[in-house]
Amino acid sequence: MKKDYYEILGIDKGADAAAIKKAYRKKAIEFHPDKNPGDKEAEEKFKEAAEAYEVLSDADKKARYDQYGHAAFEGGGGYGGGHMNMDDIFSQFGDIFGSAFGGGGFGGFGGFGGGQRRAKGTSLRIKVKLTLEDIANGVEKKVKVKRKIKAAGVTYKTCATCNGTGQVTKIANTVFGRMQTASPCHTCQGTGQMIDQKPAGSDAEGMIQQEETVSIKIPAGVAEGMQLKVAGKGNEAPGNNSVAGDLLVVVEELEHETLKREGDNLHYDLYISFSEAALGESKEIYTVTGNVRIKLEEGIQSGKILRLRGKGLPHLNSYGSGDLLVHINVWTPKKLTKEQKEFFEKMQEDGNFKPTPGKGDKSFFEKVKEMFS
C-alpha cells in the first residue's frame, strides 16, 4: 500500500503552500542522489518526496487527494508522481534546491553531477468525454493529437559555449578568496547541444508538427475532472538526449438521460401510477450493467427509496461498486374523467384512503438524512 503523502513529507493536512514547499526541500536535500551516491533506498525516498510534492503543491490535486486518496490519481498513470524518473523530478522541481548543490545548478539533470540538462518536451492537455456506461465498464479511446516531433534528418552538435557540459563556470575574487560558481549555459539552456542541420519545413529548433492517433486506456470508476497521464505522448524536445513530454487527459462526464451520479452511487426516479402503487407491480429498470427487474409491494408509498446494492459505479482501483438508489414517485393524474372523479369522490370518506402514517413510515427529511448518513 502506498504511503500517505502528508506522512512522507512529515506535515499535517492543515499545512499551507509555504510549509509544504519547505518540507519537500528538506526531504529532497536529505535524500538527494549527490548526497547518497549508489543508495537505492535514498533514491526511492527522493522519488516518494517528489511524488508527494507534485500533488500537495497543486491546489486542485491536493483537494482531490484529500477527498479520494491515492485512488484519485492511479487510473491510467495518474498525475505521474509514482512514474517519475530523476529527469522528470529535476526538470519540474529543480528550483526547490536553490544553491544547495553546486551553486546555480543542482547536481545535474540526468547524470547527477555532470550538470548537463536533459531537455524534456512540453506536455499537452486534452479532454475526453465519457458516458456513465464508459465509466462503469472502463473504455479505450483513440484520439488524434497534434504534437511536435523532431524532423527527419535534423542533427545537433555540441554547444561551443559550454563544450557540451550544459554549465558555465565563473571564478570571482572575494574577501574569502577565489569562489567558483556554476550556472546553466544560456546558449543551449543547459542541454549541452545546439542545432546543426535543420531540414526544410522545420522550425528554428528542427521540429515539425504532426498529427498522431493515441490510444488511451481509461479505467472504470473515474470521475469528472480527474486527470490521467499518457507518458511520452506530449511534444518532443530538441536534442539527441531529450525526452518527450506527456499527454494529460482530463475526464469530462456526460450527463445521463435517466441516471444521476453521486460519488459511486447512482440515483433513478421511478414513476408509477396510483393503481400500481396500490396493487403492487413488477418493473424493469435500466442500470449501467444491464436491465434488472424489481418487485414493488402492495401499498408502496411515494418517496420510498429502494437500494440495489452493487448496481452503481465501480470504486476506482479497488473492489466493489456503489449502489443504485431507486426513488419511488407515485404519479398524480392532472385530469380525470367523470367516472374517475366519481370514484375518488366516493373514496374520500373511505378510511382505507385516508393517510395514516405509522412509526415505520419515515418523513421526507428522515429519508434524506438516512440517505446521506
Secondary structure layout:
Blueprint: H1 5-9, H2 17-30, H3 40-56, H4 59-68, H5 86-93, E1 124-130, H6 132-137, E2 139-150, E3 155-158, E4 167-174, E5 177-184, E6 193-197, E7 207-218, E8 227-230, E9 247-253, E10 259-262, E11 265-272, H7 274-279, E12 281-285, E13 292-296, E14 305-308, E15 324-330, H8 338-347, H9 364-372
Parallel strand pairs: 1-9, 11-15
Antiparallel strand pairs: 2-7, 3-6, 4-5, 8-9, 10-11, 12-13, 14-15
Helix pairs in contact: 2-3
Please compute the radius of gyration using only Cα atoms.
31 Å
What's the architecture of the largest domain, going by CATH?
A: Sandwich
Class per helix and strand makeup: alpha+beta
Overall pLDDT, averaged? 83
Low-confidence stretches: 76-82, 98-114
Number of domains: 4
Proportion of residues in β-strands: 25-35%
What is the H/E string? Answer: HHHHHEHEEEEEEEEEEHEEEEHH
Given the C-alpha coordinates, what overall shape results?
Answer: elongated
CATH superfamily descriptor of the largest domain: Urease metallochaperone UreE, N-terminal domain
What would the CATH topology of the largest domain be? HSP40/DNAj peptide-binding domain
Number of helical runs? Answer: 9
Ends apart, CA distance between termini: 28 Å
Number of strands: 15
| Major sheet size, sense and barrel closure | 4 strands, mixed
As laid out across the biggest beta sheet, the strand order is: 10-11-15-14
Protein name: Chaperone protein DnaJ
Cofactor: Zn(2+)
GO cellular component, one term: cytoplasm
Domain J: 4-69
